[in-house]
């Protein structure tokens, strides 16, 4: 086991952020690793059971899984072009970035991969940047994502919501350095360096760019970063994918929606301990004006509070809002042993 050492300046600390949701390309890659896990962690069992019970989903993800087994094997290295920064803007943006990867990057990264594993002949067409090969890859990744990730958003997103709310609270309470200290048991903040348990020894100097911390449902045990230090700095970290969180979120919907309406119930669930109006509108796929109106109604009812931070306003649940949310959750929650 090695150590990733991330070197911060004061500017880097000021520019460090936590992504609002998972990155689709990282989730594709890391979920493929979870399919290979021998110990089958309990937290992933609901997801695994869904896949096993749906032959159509398994068939749709088969080609993508096969390609990923070759291009991103378990080990110390996989190509960075599979997880482009553009994917922060959504799956299609990420797939387009893969199709547009410069030939020199494809060739360099696949040659590096070949130093670790034996590659089949078809990889040469990717290394040459052939349009047909890149299109075949992105089509397979899209189908894999739909079957293995998007179809299970109701399982993944609640866990991400809880994780982000927790970190927003920590950031407001103890600042970014405190957040780095408490984010993950395999991360240690030794100012001005963040040490991360890693497969290899690696140094990452942020140089004033800041660090984007990306939550991942499928990242397990230790965070992961890009291999090329010249790419935009990112650290993907594991959240706690809890089946209990999923069960609570699912069971809380009917009574809460019946009481205050579906959109306002969604707003109350989503804000947790902190979301801006923009984040809320993106999360719920509603307009910022609509998000602001629903937040105002909940605020007038004493269910959320709104605080301005610079140019943004952050909405969070009040004690009353939390009590209502948790009360509706517990009233319809199945026994702990049920799945």
UniProtKB/TrEMBL annotation:
CDD domains per UniProt: HTH_ARSR (cd00090)
Which Gene3D superfamilies is this protein grouped with? Winged helix-like DNA-binding domain superfamily/Winged helix DNA-binding domain
> Pfam families, per this entry?
HTH_20
Name of the protein in question:
ArsR family transcriptional regulator
């Amino acid at each position: 086991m090695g150590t990733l050492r991330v070197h911060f300046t004061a500017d880097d600390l000021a520019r460090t952020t936590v992504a609002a949701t998972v990155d689709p390309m990282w989730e594709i890659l890391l979920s493929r690793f979870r399919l290979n896990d021998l110990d089958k962690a309990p937290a992933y069992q609901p997801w695994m059971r869904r896949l096993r019970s749906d032959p159509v989903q398994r068939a749709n993800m088969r080609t993508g899984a096969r390609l990923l087994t070759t291009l991103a094997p378990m080990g110390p290295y996989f190509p960075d072009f599979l997880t482009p920064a553009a994917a922060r803007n959504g799956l299609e943006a990420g797939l387009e970035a893969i199709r547009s990867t410069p030939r020199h990057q494809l060739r360099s990264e696949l040659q590096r991969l070949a130093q670790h594993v034996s590659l089949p002949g078809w990889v040469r067409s990717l290394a040459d940047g052939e349009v047909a090969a890149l299109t075949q890859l992105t089509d397979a990744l899209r189908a894999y994502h739909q079957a293995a990730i998007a179809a299970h958003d109701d399982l993944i997103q609640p866990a991400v919501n809880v994780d982000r709310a927790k970190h927003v609270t920590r950031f407001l309470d103890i600042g970014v350095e405190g957040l780095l200290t408490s984010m993950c048991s395999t991360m240690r903040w030794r100012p001005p360096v963040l040490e991360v348990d890693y497969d290899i020894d690696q140094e990452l100097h942020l140089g004033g760019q800041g660090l984007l911390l990306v939550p991942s449902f499928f990242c397990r045990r230790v965070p992961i970063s890009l291999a090329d230090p010249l790419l935009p700095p990112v650290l993907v970290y594991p959240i706690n994918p809890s089946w209990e969180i999923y069960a609570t979120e699912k069971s809380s919907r009917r009574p809460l929606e019946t009481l205050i309406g579906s959109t306002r119930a969604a707003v109350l669930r989503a804000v947790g301990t902190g979301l801006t109006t923009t984040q809320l509108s993106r999360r719920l796929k509603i307009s910022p004006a609509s998000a602001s109106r629903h937040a105002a109604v909940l605020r007038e009812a004493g269910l959320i509070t709104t605080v301005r931070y610079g140019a943004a306003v952050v909405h969070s649940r009040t004690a009353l809002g939390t009590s209502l949310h948790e009360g509706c959750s517990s009233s319809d929650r199945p026994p702990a042993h049920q799945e």
